[in-house]
């Protein structure tokens, strides 16, 4: 999974006691500099729902797992990455880099 803004890989973390993913857009300081973009935080359960919906939409006949491990495997098999932003997620072909 990657950030839709800076394309970095999302890191897993815990947010309010829930599994989540975040991107700090390359910022390492906890201080908020003026004009700095807010960190991206996504709850894992929301993300799983969104990715599941995207896979079903892409191939209605496919057996789409609703479990996180199954989804991750399916994305790898299809060579897809999830591009995330605060508002939405999208699937894109994995770049060879
Ligand atoms: Zn980012």
Description:
By secondary structure, the chain is of the alpha+beta class. The protein has one domain (2-30, 37-93). The chain is 27% helix and 28% strand. The chain is built from two helices and six strands, in the order ββββααββ. It has helices at residues 44-58, 68-78, and strands at 2-3, 11-15, 18-23, 40-43, 80-84, 89-93. The chain has a three-stranded mixed β-sheet with strand order 1-5-6. A three-stranded antiparallel β-sheet has the order 2-3-4. A hairpin with a 4-residue loop joins strand 5 and strand 6 (89-93). The chain starts with a strand and ends with a strand. The model has no long low-confidence stretch (mean pLDDT 87). Residues 3, 5-6, 8, 23, 25, 40 line the site of zinc ion. Zinc ion binds next to loops.
Please name the defining characteristics of this protein.
single chain, 97 residues, alpha+beta, 3-stranded mixed beta sheet, 3-stranded antiparallel beta sheet, binds zinc ion
Indicate the low-confidence ranges by residue numbers: none
**Which small molecules are bound?**
zinc ion
Task: State mean pLDDT (0 to 100 scale).
Answer: 87
Number of strands: 6
Domain module tally:
1
Shape annotation? elongated
Spatial extent as radius of gyration = 14 Å
**Continuous helix count:** 2
Beta fraction of the residues?
Answer: 25-35%
Q: Strands across the major sheet, in which order?
A: 1-5-6
Helix content: 25-40%
**Topology as a string of helices (H) and strands (E):** EEEEHHEE
What is the SS-derived class?
Answer: alpha+beta
Distance between the termini: 14 Å
């Amino acid at each position: 999974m990657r950030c839709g803004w800076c394309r970095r890989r999302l890191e897993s973390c815990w947010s309010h006691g829930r599994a989540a993913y975040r991107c700090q857009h390359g910022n390492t300081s906890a201080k908020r500099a003026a004009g700095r973009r807010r960190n991206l935080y996504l709850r894992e359960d929301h993300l799983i729902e969104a990715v599941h919906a995207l896979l079903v939409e892409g191939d209605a006949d496919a057996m789409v797992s609703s479990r996180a491990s199954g989804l991750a495997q399916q994305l790898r098999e299809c060579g897809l990455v999830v591009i995330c932003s605060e508002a939405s997620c999208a699937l894109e072909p994995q770049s060879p880099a």
